[in-house]
Amino acid sequence: MTETIAEMVMPGTYIEVRAEGLIGAGAIATGNIGVVGTAARGAPNTVRSLGSYSDARDMFGAYDTYAKNGNAPPPLSLVRTLEQVFIGGGQNVFAVRIANGDPATASAQVKAATGTGNAFTLNAIEPGSWANGVKYAVTQDDGDTSPFKLTLTGPRSKETYVGVDAAELANALAGSRLVTVSGKASAGTKLKIAEGTIDGGTDGANVTSKEIQAGLAALESWPVNIVLVAGVGADTALASLQSHLEQTQDEGRERIAILGAPSSDPAQLAANMPSDGRIVFVAPGLRVTDTDGQTRALPPAYTAALVAGRLSTIAPQVSLTNKTLPVEDLDDDKFTSTAYQTLLQKNVLLVRRKFGFQIVKGITTDTGAFKQISVRRIVDFAKAGVRAGADAYIGRLNNVRVRAALKATLDGFLSQMVLDEMLVGYTLDVSATREQEVNGICTVTMTLLPTFSIDYIRVTINVQ
Question: Do 96 and 147 have their domain in common?
């Protein structure tokens, strides 16, 4: 149905509806989390959307024991980090598996009944160590004349396939969620009754800044607000994250990086601190119950994941200061009151034991206007809303009427920010000189007064 003026033949009123006055800024995401790290399965450098820890386990496999082999190769970090993100309250997560080189795929040979040859090869459906230890068993229920049964027992599933020979069994395995089949599975080839395990998968867990950069690059175009590098601290990830934050800010996809402080020793944290309103350093580390039932200390990078999950649950104007965290325990033996005071002055976000476990102060590493995380998020929210509202006017007429409609759209968005207590106030002007009109330019000038949170309450009591 058209809403433009039709040919005026019959006497009457003809109305044209111009839609500029109906344009709004739309919904803006504030709690999406992007994570890169090492995992037991999944295609490297591919973004996967997750809504729960169960999704993370299914897509990337279970994590290993933190202290295995003296941490050589390093323990897998992605799913362990995602566990803390979801414990903290995270809901919308974009995760990327990174790996040093190409992870190997676990496999096993299924033998033929006669001779020394193989009937076919079982290969894990995805590369990585997740399939190491998957058991297979070839059996026959009723002697030599009955069909062969091949049973696969995986980490969280069990599959059974039946066939009269290698070819029929290989065809049945095409439906497996654990393995694929390679090699020539010939018709008439009988199978050897045997059992064994699939093995040989590797993860490439010894990642460097090169692999971290590649994983972060995969996240650049996704709607991420908070970004994490799983399992490693600022000493390894800071440079890659700073480059990523600059790149995404230039592309209009602003985000905040939360990362573990470079050391679990408070004496080593006070030096070489950056000053960046998009970087948050977190300490101390965590103590958790590991896969073998032992209590182990995890570095501050995993506390950062918990903080990121908590941050994603609150509105941009709400401060993290004094917010509680569902921490099992803290690795804070060296964190004295003096250490806490020193690190707060260095703008480290700290977690302490107080009415459970609380974030002491919700701060970035910035020493200026963006010291409070909430202020950084408020301004990023305003930028996203203004961009969303203004982009809808690209290509429309550059005249007084359309500029007034643009101002109304932005005014409505900013007024809502005032009502939501993100802003104390603002000023807004939309204009264009004749020269700017000729060149297709519309100028939006605004002043924002963000709301700051209370960090200290100073009480003076006079007693008479």
Answer: no
